[in-house]
Specification:
By secondary structure, this protein is mostly helical. The protein contains seven helices and no strands. Helix 1 runs antiparallel to helix 2, helix 1 packs antiparallel against helix 5 and helix 1 packs parallel to helix 6. The protein is globular, with a radius of gyration of 26 Å.
């Protein structure tokens, strides 16, 4: 039990919580780029999507370490159940409860992504909207329970993460490209030189029955 009361567990909890918050800020922001179909010749949409997915896995890893070290640290009365069920912790009950809600929402989004090919696209999109609420509750949890988040650099970091995601949310709503009726919008890489569009927009020859005939009588 001595190892479970070492201050290094508390230091690890604080560090992984900060890193997880930064990573989830990047994940949500990149998700906005994916949703708004941003991509170019240097960094394409596929690369942005893969970076979004990879960072989400790294963020979940840091979140898992953050929760595990918190539960293992016997200095604070926070059990494993408190990580999933709100209002079951004796330590900062409200703040930990909000963190549990954030973890449940993020877990739901992650599971839905794993089952994306097995569930309806509309269901996946609906569950994926929980990522915004999950980040918001995680931000509140960081401010209420974080040792370093109320003063100095920690407060600036929390405020910056919140401002970045708020700007991403506004751009997600106002900057979303329009959709044509019944289909998604064209890729930002599509140009007038696109062979598909060039073929469809090229003038078609007259049918044989409608071709203009030359004046008869001339040889």
């Amino acid at each position: 039990m001595i190892a479970l009361t070492t201050p290094y567990l508390w230091y690890t909890t604080r560090a992984t919580g900060i890193v997880a918050l930064i990573l989830f800020t990047m994940v949500v922001s990149l998700g906005t780029l994916v949703a708004n179909r941003i991509g170019g010749t240097i960094v394409g949409r596929f690369e942005i999507n893969e970076l979004h997915r990879s960072l989400s896995m790294v963020a979940l890893t840091f979140l898992a370490i953050h929760i595990l070290t918190t539960v293992m640290d016997s200095y604070v009365p926070t059990g494993l159940i408190s990580a999933f069920v709100p209002m079951t912790s004796d330590f900062k009950r409200v703040g930990v409860a909000i963190g549990a809600v954030a973890f449940d929402l993020i877990l739901a989004v992650w599971i839905s992504s794993l089952l994306k090919l097995r569930i309806a696209n509309t269901s996946w999109r609906f569950i994926h909207w929980f990522s915004w609420l999950g980040f918001t509750t995680a931000l509140v949890h960081a401010y209420m329970t974080g040792t370093d988040s109320r003063t100095g650099i920690g407060l600036v970091l929390v405020a910056t993460c919140g401002a970045v995601v708020a700007a991403a949310a506004l751009w997600r709503f106002f900057g979303r490209p329009t959709r044509a009726a019944g289909r998604t919008a064209l890729s930002p890489l599509a140009t007038s030189k696109d062979p598909v569009r060039a073929t469809s927009d090229a003038p078609r020859p007259f049918p044989v029955s409608q071709r203009p005939t030359r004046e008869r009588g001339r040889r």
